[in-house]
Design goal:
heterodimer; A: about 120 residues; mainly beta; 6-stranded mixed beta sheet; 4-stranded antiparallel beta sheet; 12 strands; B: about 120 residues; 7-stranded mixed beta sheet; globular
Amino acid sequence: AQKITQTQPGMFVQEKEAVTLDCTYDTSDPSYGLFWYKQPSSGEMIFLIYQGSYDQQNATEGRYSLNFQKARKSANLVISASQLGDSAMYFCAMRAASGTYKYIFGTGTRLKVLA
Amino acid sequence: EAEVAQSPRYKITEKSQAVAFWCDPISGHATLYWYRQILGQGPELLVQFQDESVVDDSQLPKDRFSAERLKGVDSTLKIQPAELGDSAMYLCASSSRGGTGGAGELFFGEGSRLTVL
């Protein structure tokens, strides 16, 4: 069975600082994808970054990078140079790459960027 | 820009009434998901379609919830009868690919917020 765990209900970061949001996962599938989504207070879910289980390098998208440690089953999101607009809920998600391609989410981390 | 359309945006109903939500995914997206998100929590998968077929409905409360995607395009999620605990955001998402290769990220609609009184 698949499982995503986000242990930080809430995080604070000073504007312009970097912050790491934790995500661990569990799956028996050899192939899978890991994702991060942002959900501002307006409610829409915004895709941020993707990491494939066989990707050799950590994914990066602008100020977002994914610290992928396969042996530890962790996929932490790093946001560099935080901005006030980064304040939102952040969800880690996993998609199986076989079978039903089930797509599950963690419980989320609420990030607040302080001016 | 192509979007996932959902309606209604907001629905207030009394318990024991029936309610239905509609979703039109991005054209060409074969995989469609319905999630329920309680305020402050992560989305919980209710049902997943591949074309017109249900591939996962293990978390769908089948005594009161039903979902269909008859022609493999748009989809309807129904609740009958609604209960107080059904108050939540119902999110529809679609994806163009389900296998390996590429991101296969989800594209979400704006959601349907249900309040059951």
